[in-house]
Amino acid sequence: MSVREMDIKADPSCTTNSLSNYLWSDPPDENKWADCVHCGMCLESCPTYEHTGQEQHSPRGRVHLIKSVAEGKLKVNEMFADPVFQCLDCRACTTACPADVDVGGLIEEARGQVRQAMPLTGWKGTVSKAILEGLFPHPNRLDSLGGLLKFYQKSGLQKAVRKTGLINIMPKHLVEMESIMPEIKESVRKKYKNENVIKAKGESKHEVSFLTGCVMDVMFGDINEATINVLTRNGNDVKIPKNQTCCGALHVHAGDRETGRKLAKQNIEAFQDSEKIIVNAAGCGCMLKEYPELFREEPEWHEKAEEFSKKVEDISKYLYDTGYEKPKAEINKRITYHDACHLAHGQGIRQEPRDLLLNIPGVEMVHMPNSDRCCGSAGVYNITNPEMAGAVLESKMENVPDDVEMISMGNPGCMLQMAIGVQKYGRNQQVVHTVQLLDWAYQKEDEGKEGK
Amino acid sequence: MAVKGLKTKDQHIINLANIVNSPRSILYQKEDLLAYDCDGFTIHKHLPRAVVFPKNTEEVARLVKYCHEHDLPFLARGAGTGLSGGAIPLNGEVIISLVRMKKLLSVDLENRRAVVEPGFVNLKLTNSISDKGYYYAPDPSSQYCCTIGGNVAENAGGAHCLKYGVTTNHILGLEVVMPNGEIIEIGANGIPDAPGYDLLGLLTGSEGTLGIVTKITVRILKNPEAKQTVLAYFDKVADGSQAVSDIISAGIVPAALEMMDKTAIEGVEAAAFPVGHPKDIEAVLLIEVDGISAGIDEQINEILDVCKKRNVREVKVAQDEAERGRWWANRKTGFGAMGAISPDYLVQDGVIPRSKLPIVLERINQISEEYGLRISNIFHAGDGNLHPLVLFDARIPGETEKALAAGSACLQVCADVGGTITGEHGVGIEKREEMRFVFKDEEIIAQTDIREVFNPKNLLNAGKLFPTPGRCVEIKKEMKAASTAAN
Fold first, then answer.
1. pLDDT at position A452, please?
2. Is the CB of residue A391 less than 8 Å away from at least one CB of chain B?
3. SS3 helix, strand, coil % of chain B, rounded to 5?
4. Which residues share a beta bridge with B380?
5. Contact indicator for A38, B42 with CB cutoff of 8 Å
6. Reported ipTM
7. Which residue from B minimizes the CA distance to A80?
8. I need a surface site. Which of A231, A403, B112, B360 has the fewest CB within 10 A?
9. Which residue of B28, B29, B32, B41 is the best one to mutate when testing the A interface, meaning the one whose CB has the most A CBs within 10 A?
10. Helix (H) or strand (E) holding B211
């Protein structure tokens, strides 16, 4: 028997009378999805679509679902949370989108609704609370953690844990993370805590304030040190405002927009007197630039956030724009560059860091195919979604050219993830921050002079 | 082996899951299915019964056989970028998604052919062979993400089809799962012009109603030796249109000859890939010529001359590959760019004789005024393939219907001047009724009769391509059946 061809009786989109199922304040913004015409140009840019082939794990699919909740066709429940939280928030879709749809903003707003509808419970809730609320907003506790990690490495405890097999009680992806933990250096926040201004070497031309970041300062104190060196060498007085705190990116990614707003307010006040705010972590820089987004419902703070965000600049773009001394010493290395998502897609900064590298004598740049594809770090995504993060990392590592000695980038999360990749796939590249290379070139130049 | 972890008691779902052998290869819960309620055509929405993700032809055949035996409606889907609704599950179909069958199976440079799975993305083919100096010619604007399987179903065109032809001119062989689950191969070994009926031609562009393509042998071409691209701005649409005709009349066959009107320019300039088109011009032409190096410059000079004769305000040649790339990105993302100036759009796909361009554009302008909806025009002017984009806001009650009516009116104009209702987007759901503009009832019946040979139960993608049987068609069919019985 043949099936009758049925007439279409489905309602046209958006004509339903049912109410929105977003029940909390700060819901996803209708104007953001109104730009999406469902053309699908975003599909291939999305790492989770690449790995699942499923629409609900694609940018336009997620936008479609977020809109469906507002139309009352879906509820904010676990089935909705899954695609919304599987998103890496890498923003590659915003680069691909012909209509500039702010998918990232929609995802973060939707996560805010999910977290209020379904607060995390059980061990996930405890861990998330302990880390996001108990740790990151508190610089002193972060420093203590840094101290503990340093003790762990220096005391022989690390060796013991690895040797005795005690480490095997951790899930595999955390073991991978432990194994690449960089050697902990002193945080610059601690080092310069008694200095109001770190003076420029030679004539002072500008004054800038520096956001030290959390992961950056604890795990990569040396990169922060390099950033300060490079800034002061180029005529910048550097201030590290005392009351600054975590940028809140991790909280906002996790849907905790309330804490995000709290931290944003604190930073806006801490940097009130600054003219320029320099950031060396792409994730933090992008978050700071997007503070206004958090205050859509608080006009007064929205205005302050707008003003604040205009002052934020990534270190590579700042050096590129204001001009800097080209290093003279040679660093003879073959280097490839990885575009951190929140630098390339989030802030549109692609050429500036590459130029910094190209201007170091001796550096040979090798192009990495798909260099702006996410590495899978995505804030704490590699901890919360290890399986997908692993798949994304594997694709990334396939694109790292075989014969390079270093992989350079501008974000601490990526650095940790890429280091995991290098180790996991038996590669031997050194993972470095772009600014570090510039600093090394300067140092080498100075050593050469002293040697003479 | 039974798949574990399913949250359903629906025996059909369980059986389908067992065929694809993984809980991750099937979707059946409402929240997941919602993302599949439409494709690039968003005006009609319908939930599928399930979405399955086979890994190989074998699985596709078993899924189809199951649906055939249990009378479950089903259809195939690629990237879901189609613009006429061909992948929308009108009857609550089981969607067989082919996106995980995305391998490039082989490349045979000597014989200039490649074999791909249906989920392989169009542009990836060119990217995979460009270092060897080859490319795949059909380039629909969605080529960054659309699949070659979908291109075959819709007989997709693209900007460069003016010179190189549409998808059907580049298909050498197909492996097809028939609607009863049997696997057949047509045009094996890529030998063109096989004896017997031209099944390749029939299958290509059949909009997923005759079978599911699981393997495709395509023709690949050597990169042209040289390539030049020109941008020309006109104060008057009529001048721009006339320039198009003049270029072709001069004996030049450009690889591409594209046009955008004022509203379209406003859209692309407000969107993600602006190139600085002046806002006060009425038309921009994007012209590309390619081929052997000798003679390219002469062709370009001739084109520049033609444009000047037609009062061009400004005309320029792309200085390098980067500039050329920007111009094309601006044009190829044109549809999506409409999102920047309108919440929704409906794109039409009429074809007209080139000489009628000025009249038709004028008529479309009138339609725009009549319906009170803005219409932008982006089109493959060289082959007379128009894409009027009706801009509307679905949130305003009644506006969707108005947009549909305006779109239909545009197609009526195309049909009236001796053109047709679709050049490359397919009929799908969108233009079923408009088929009557260009076919008589008897002609439509002749075609549905062919469908019945392949797809007798009409379980595969039912309700697409042809108008819902109108009264007279049905009566004629009944009469025919009665007379056959009587004989």
1. 52
2. no
3. 40, 20, 40
4. B385
5. yes
6. 0.90
7. B31
8. A403
9. B32
10. none
- Work out how many CB contacts closer than 8 A connect A with B: 156
A 10 A CB-CB count for B332 gives 24
Mutate to test the interface with A, among B27, B29, B31 (most CBs of A within 10 A): B31
Q: How many CB atoms lie under 10 A from the CB of residue B249?
A: 11
Mean pLDDT over B99-115 rounds to 96
B345 to chain A, any CB pair closer than 8 A? The answer is: yes
The predicted model scores a pTM of 0.90
Question: What integer is the mean pLDDT of B208-234?
Answer: 96
Model confidence over B242-275: pLDDT tens digits? Answer: 999 999 999 999 999 999 999 999 999 999 899 9
Q: Report all structural domains of chain B as residue ranges with CATH numbers, in order of start.
A: 11-97 (3.30.43.10), 104-222 (3.30.465.10), 224-341 (3.30.70.2190), 342-438 (3.30.70.2740), 443-461+469-486 (no CATH)
CA distances from A318 to A279, A322, A388 (A): 9, 6, 34
The amino acid that residue A96 corresponds to is: A
Beta strands in B94-238 (DSSP E): 94-97, 104-108, 113-116, 134-135, 171-177, 183-186, 212-219, 221-222, 226-234
pLDDT reported for residue B408:
94
pLDDT score recorded for residue B484: 58
- pLDDT grade, residue B116 (50/70/90)? very high
Are the C-beta atoms of B171 and B191 separated by less than 8 Å?
no
